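queue> pop job 88
queue> type: inverse folding (structure -> sequence)
queue> payload:
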């Protein structure tokens, strides 16, 4: 009998712990405090109480309390309590019938001697379904949380993208403003040089000013095109070089008007490289105008093409050529070598003994 009472006490003890966990009862609630009282009573049954009838009444009270608690938790939104209600409802009915029979108020056990066993079997099945139901609910919660998390991440990405686009627009505006100012400053410098050049009478000095004007103009042209196209990484070199050659031709009219220019341009370059190429073309074409032709007539050829990942610039003329002195190069050739080797990280081949030809390669 003592062993039966201890088993009933242990059953009550673990039933309380199970109910607290499964029904997710908050620590601050009245239900939690009542369950703790039943936990203490279970300890008393195990160690002190030895009266079977009292233990059975406590068990009946707990079953009814558990049944009511599960109903309250279901009403509070704990959906998985519905099968808990069913399981303990069956056990409650069975307990009532057993207690009535033990007090001689019923004879159900004569017809159904294993009623408690069947009731507990149904309860176990119900709780098994409850666990499956709980798993399904947890899975739905997880999916909902994942969806919410995805939505939060999506909103954050949209927000960050909007912020980055705004910052990019501000940067683009500021950069465009800087290019406008550079262009205006270059135009002011060109205007000052032209005004000064008009006042000069010494042809040697006048030629120096003209060369300086063409060099600055080669830079200014790229900024003019940049402001029109608004694309730092894609300067149309055909349009740029044609405009640059037209300016050089206008500045060299006093030297010759019988020189033909031939171009084959099929490339685009970012701003930095376009500026260097413009200065190089300005130097070599201006030199051809000045020194290549004895009768002030001939042809100049300019080609710029992309071959795989490399660019090739070829500038040649049909003039008399010259003997290149490595030890005493002109200022223009010094500038060209500096731009090709140091800035473009490229190579240059020079053929100048008969007609002049420059082959420049860079990435």
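queue> result:
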């Amino acid at each position: 009998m003592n062993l039966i009472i201890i088993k009933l006490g242990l059953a009550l003890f673990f039933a309380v712990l199970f109910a607290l966990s499964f029904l997710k009862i908050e620590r601050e609630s009245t239900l939690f405090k009542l369950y703790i009282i039943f936990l203490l009573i279970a300890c008393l049954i195990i160690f002190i109480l030895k009266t079977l009838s009292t233990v059975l009444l406590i068990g009946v009270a707990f079953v009814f309390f558990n049944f009511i608690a599960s109903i309250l938790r279901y009403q509070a939104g704990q959906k998985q309590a519905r099968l808990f209600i069913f399981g303990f409802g069956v056990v409650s009915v069975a307990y009532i019938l057993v207690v009535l029979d033990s007090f001689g108020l019923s004879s159900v056990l004569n017809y159904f001697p294993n009623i408690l066993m069947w009731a507990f079997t149904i309860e176990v099945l119900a709780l098994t379904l409850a666990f499956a139901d709980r798993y399904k609910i947890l899975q739905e919660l997880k999916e909902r949380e994942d969806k919410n998390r995805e939505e939060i991440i999506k909103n954050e990405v949209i927000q960050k993208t909007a912020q980055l686009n705004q910052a990019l627009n501000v940067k683009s505006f500021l950069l465009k403003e800087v290019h406008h100012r550079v262009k205006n400053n270059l135009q002011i410098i060109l205007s000052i040089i032209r005004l000064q050049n008009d006042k000069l009478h010494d042809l040697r000095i006048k030629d120096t000013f003209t060369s300086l004007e063409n060099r600055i103009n080669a830079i200014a042209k790229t900024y003019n095109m940049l402001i029109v196209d608004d694309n730092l990484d894609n300067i149309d070199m055909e349009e740029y070089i044609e405009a640059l050659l037209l300016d050089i031709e206008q500045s060299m009219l006093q030297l010759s008007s019988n020189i033909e220019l031939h171009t084959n341009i099929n490339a685009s370059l970012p701003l930095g490289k376009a500026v260097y190429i413009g200065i190089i073309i300005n130097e070599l074409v201006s030199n051809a105008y000045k020194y290549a032709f004895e009768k002030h007539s001939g042809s100049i050829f300019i080609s710029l093409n992309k071959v795989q990942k490399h660019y090739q610039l070829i500038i040649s003329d049909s003039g008399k050529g010259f003997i290149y002195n490595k030890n005493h190069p002109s200022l223009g050739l010094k500038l060209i070598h500096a731009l090709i080797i140091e800035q473009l990280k490229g190579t240059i081949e020079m053929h100048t003994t008969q007609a002049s030809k420059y082959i420049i390669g860079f990435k």
